[in-house]
Design goal:
By secondary structure, the chain is of the alpha/beta class. 50% of the residues lie in helices and 12% in strands.
């Protein structure tokens, strides 16, 4: 009986398994990411207490539309080739951010390969920072 059910509904079972995998993948990805996710409060504490470097990995047009105060701008697409510009900051914590938090997670891996040990990415990115009413600059 169970074998007949599987043969009859194999497509439904496949969709169920793929859906489950898609739901679990973000959790697995967070665990495997070299960077740690931080919210606005923890990011502010890192900036104020540990002199964290803010790294904006958005594209130039996004950066010019507004960014976090004193942020260093290196688009994710250029991070591997321009990473040496950050070498002097290797001892500081780095908080990478993008528009919503996806590209900054990817940047964490690149920063780890560049030798950064204390890497964070801002949960919700620039949008969450701005929506919280925290300071920005143009």
């Amino acid at each position: 009986m169970p074998m007949q059910f599987i043969q009859t509904n194999w497509l439904l079972i496949l969709v169920m398994l793929l859906s489950a995998a898609m739901l679990v993948w973000p959790l697995v990805q967070r665990r495997l990411s070299p960077g740690k996710e931080v919210g606005n409060l923890h990011a502010t504490q890192l900036i104020n207490r540990e002199n964290a470097l803010l790294l904006d990995v958005r594209e130039t047009a996004e950066y010019e539309g507004g960014h976090l105060p004193n942020a260093v701008h290196i688009p994710l697409s250029q991070l591997a080739s321009r990473g040496q510009e950050l070498a002097k900051h290797a001892a500081r914590p780095v908080v990478a951010y993008c528009a919503s938090g996806n590209r900054s997670r990817t940047a964490g891996g690149a920063l780890a390969r560049l030798g950064f040990k204390d890497v964070y990415h801002l949960q919700g990115g620039y949008r969450a920072w701005k929506d919280a009413g925290l300071p920005t600059q143009r």
